[in-house]
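[Discussion] Sanity-checking designs against the backbone

I'm trying to build intuition for which residues belong where. Below is a structure token string of 725 positions. I'd appreciate it if someone posts a full sequence so I can compare it with mine line by line.
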């Protein structure tokens, strides 16, 4: 208990001090509630210590004091006292809600959730996504302000962390994320202090050098600034007396940033001192600028007119750089009061513009930050405003995480499948299942901020056409369109090749490899697949192929084409080139459909009967072990691919044994334009059931899509073309 007493003797921070501080700017203070929060946090943090050796309770108390300094409402200050109790002690949100009310509990819950996303190893694009995640995830702006106060006190005690690597990681995160967020919501004091501490930790030698070199300027800066301000004031007042001028010396971090970005030395830096003139009207802005340019040497290339040509974020101002009074190179900004309010307080996207280039804005975004900054400066109405204030800046985006912590930025409304494509196109194309926050979900599940998404893939799995209805991002739509177009091309190629093979088998001719090359070149195609696709979609006709073939010296009459126009209407007939349906023996193993690579097994007993199998069917290898079977390579006839035809095949489906799943499977198959001819229920085991489905499909492409969609369903464990019942 000694360390606690020593701490309070040293710091003199008490509930009474907090209450007195809040009373200075707020008429509504519940002293008993603040006392209760103080005691609750003290009891729950107990004897926990920080790395500095101070009691852990000193941290939430310091955070509360920072919030009081920002003139935050009492709910925010109380939430600051309690902000670590749920994360670091046995306290629960329910405890807080019972003792302090739902609103304070909700704020603490929000801060606790934000802490889950913190990382000390982010950089680059991930840092930007992390900033956006924090903004989007904070449903109440007070949550983010507490988080900034929390980070500020942690930075003030950063020196007590023993590991240099840890200190540098925290400093980098602070510089990349939290200082920028503080700037974004207009809390300049926090931004400047965070930048200063982080800069000192990351670049101690540069910091010391700049601080030393600026010391001389600091010692005389007040006189220099006053002198320059006085002379600029005279020039401005020649235009109008209704204007104001302010000047300042920039911080070491700001100076170093400009030196680094512009790749110039300290001596070359023109804007160590910056001055701002606020005029009464746009006309006066230009008149004051003209007066300054008449009296001082203008630095070439440094004039910018953002009044006549505003930035995309609505920023307006005149920028110029001159060799001014005392022969000092100074930067001057000239704008109206309204322009100044927009530039300094009003545009949420101003932060984005400086760091990331032009970005369009919504009026609501501008008004949101205007109101927030004004309220933070003028305390009237703060309780009412902050109660309903939301971080709407990024309302069009959500930010989700991979299991390894990688942040993915997506538009609102994005689904699990959009997330998969955002990781990589291959992940999206081969995605088979997904978990969101540990729970298995369908691929079309919409995501929300902070969701952790785990995508499972299978290299043999491909998307279905209906997936195009599951995505909203350009990357996902493009990836799906590309792969599905590939499926369509493959289908056209199969049909065209079958037409080609059909014709030449009917006339008992074999096209050699060299003859094929000649035909392709003669018909001006790049390859055989392109020629087959042209045959399939009617751009090319077999008559053209035959004419090209005859150029090789073959004597064939065009009338032979008539023999190749085979048609069929029986949905279970397998139209095979050169094989009569009467000679086919039904098989019960693989059930081929048009598009499958097929072979024929003909008995050598002389009856001419043949079994048609998928080439990879296990029965083919088994039957060829005997001497009584001959293997023939076969091709589908053109008529096999008529869209009116249907072919019977079988699917083995293992699904969760729950009411309604069978109906869902049927719906999936029917939604793909196919139908179920028969169904058998097989073995039940460990909550699963095996089903054997007889399905009527058009071709293997449609069958592949059906299998893909069934695999996507969360209640389906496995789908195959094996017969298991």
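Best answer:
Here's mine. Compare freely.
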């Amino acid at each position: 208990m000694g360390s606690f007493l020593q701490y309070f003797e040293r710091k003199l921070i008490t509930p009474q001090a907090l209450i007195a501080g809040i009373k200075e700017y707020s008429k509504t203070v519940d002293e008993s509630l603040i006392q209760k929060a103080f005691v609750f946090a003290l009891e729950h943090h107990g004897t926990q210590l920080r790395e500095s050796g101070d009691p852990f309770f000193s941290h939430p108390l310091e955070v509360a004091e920072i919030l009081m300094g920002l003139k935050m409402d009492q709910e925010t200050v109380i939430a600051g006292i309690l902000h670590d109790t749920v994360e670091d002690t046995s306290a629960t949100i329910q405890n807080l809600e019972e003792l302090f009310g739902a609103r304070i509990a909700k704020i603490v819950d929000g801060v606790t959730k934000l802490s889950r996303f913190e990382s000390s190893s982010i950089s680059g694009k991930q840092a930007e996504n992390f900033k956006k995640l924090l903004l989007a995830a904070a449903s109440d702006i007070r949550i983010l302000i507490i988080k900034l106060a929390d980070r500020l006190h942690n930075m003030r005690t950063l020196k007590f962390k023993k590991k240099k690597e840890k200190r540098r990681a925290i400093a980098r995160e602070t510089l990349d994320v939290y200082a920028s967020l503080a700037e974004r919501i207009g809390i300049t004091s926090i931004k400047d202090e965070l930048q200063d501490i982080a800069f000192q930790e990351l670049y101690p030698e540069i910091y010391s050098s700049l601080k030393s070199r600026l010391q001389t300027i600091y010692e005389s800066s007040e006189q220099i600034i006053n002198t320059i301000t006085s002379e600029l004031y005279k020039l401005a007042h020649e235009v109008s007396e209704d204007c104001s001028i302010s000047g300042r010396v920039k911080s070491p971090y700001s100076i170093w940033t400009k030196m680094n970005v512009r790749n110039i030395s300290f001596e070359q830096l023109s804007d160590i001192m910056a001055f701002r003139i606020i005029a009464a009207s746009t006309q006066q802005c230009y008149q004051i600028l003209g007066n300054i340019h008449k009296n001082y040497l203008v630095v070439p290339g440094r004039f910018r007119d953002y009044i006549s040509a505003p930035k995309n974020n609505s920023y307006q101002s005149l920028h110029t750089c001159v060799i001014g009074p005392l022969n000092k190179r100074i930067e001057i900004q000239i704008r109206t009061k309204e322009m100044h309010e927009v530039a300094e307080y009003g545009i949420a996207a101003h932060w984005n513009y400086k760091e990331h280039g032009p970005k369009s804005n919504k009026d609501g975004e501008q008004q949101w930050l205007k109101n927030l900054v004004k309220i933070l400066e003028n305390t009237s109405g703060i309780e009412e405003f902050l109660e309903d204030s939301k971080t709407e800046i990024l309302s069009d985006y959500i930010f989700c995480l991979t299991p390894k912590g990688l942040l993915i930025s997506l538009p609102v409304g994005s689904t699990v499948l959009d997330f998969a494509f955002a990781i990589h196109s291959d992940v999206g194309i081969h995605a088979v299942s997904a978990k969101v926050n540990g729970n298995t979900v369908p691929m079309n599940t919409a995501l929300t901020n902070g969701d952790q998404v785990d995508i499972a893939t299978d290299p043999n799995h491909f998307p279905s056409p209906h997936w195009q209805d599951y995505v909203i991002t350009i990357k996902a739509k493009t990836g799906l369109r590309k792969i599905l177009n590939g499926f369509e091309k493959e289908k056209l190629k199969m049909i065209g090749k079958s037409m080609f093979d059909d014709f030449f088998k009917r006339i008992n001719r074999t096209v050699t490899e060299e003859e094929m090359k000649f035909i392709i070149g003669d018909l001006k195609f790049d390859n055989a697949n392109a020629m087959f696709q042209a045959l399939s979609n009617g751009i090319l006709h077999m008559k053209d192929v035959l004419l090209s073939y005859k150029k090789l010296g073959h004597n064939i009459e065009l009338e032979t084409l008539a023999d190749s126009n085979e048609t069929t209407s029986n949905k279970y007939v397998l139209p095979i080139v050169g094989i009569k349906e009467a000679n086919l023996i039904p098989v019960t193993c693989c059930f081929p459909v048009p598009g499958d690579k097929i072979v024929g097994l003909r008995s050598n007993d002389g009856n001419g009967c043949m079994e048609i199998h998928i080439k990879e069917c296990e029965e083919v290898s088994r039957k060829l072990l005997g001497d009584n079977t001959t293997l023939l390579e076969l091709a589908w006839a053109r008529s096999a691919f008529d869209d009116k035809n249907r072919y019977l095949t079988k699917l083995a489906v293992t699904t969760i044994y729950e009411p309604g799943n069978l109906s869902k499977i049927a719906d999936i198959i029917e939604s793909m334009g196919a139908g179920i001819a028969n169904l058998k229920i097989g073995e039940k085991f460990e909550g699963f059931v095996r089903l054997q489905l007889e399905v009527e499909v058009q071709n293997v492409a449609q069958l592949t899509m059906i299998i893909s969609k069934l695999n996507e369903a969360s209640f389906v464990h496995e789908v195959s073309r094996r017969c298991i019942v």
